[in-house]
Amino acid sequence: MRQQVIAQGIADKDSICIFGTGYGGYAAIMGAVREPGLYQCAASYDGLFDLEAVLGREDPLITPAAREYIDETLGTDVKALRARSPVDNVAKIETPLLIMAAGVRDPYVHAGLLEAAMKKAGKPVDTALLDRREDEYKRLLDFLSKYLRAKPQDDAGKPGGVKQAG
User: Fold this and answer.
1) pLDDT digits (tens, 9 = 90+) for 49-64
2) Is the CB of residue 127 less than 8 Å from the CB of residue 133?
């Protein structure tokens, strides 16, 4: 779909960023892993980035039924978990990342793991541990304005050179 909207001129190939929260945050960063060069930036809010850590976590709040579901969903093969974990694939990331996490235990841990892996690899990363959801939007807008270039508008107020969907 992304390639189609680029080919049709609906999206500018030089101004695409991917963003998600929760599972979408994981998926956004994995998008940057799986399609290097497509995105000018990628951002996540409260994503989990180390599936091996999720699987191996001993948490008294996780019921046996929830543990069984996690094991079935993620699988238990360490090699496969690492292949699907952003922290183990930062070498493939070619775009700056914004990693945001709220005051929740696991996202803070995962944000720190991904930040450390990106810095170790010499990759651009901005990390924000936020107290309020409203802060997420300000940080995201600041990040997007840094990495996405604005297109001049035509006389009708539409971005120049980009078609309107519809």
Assistant:
1) 998 888 776 666 678 8
2) no
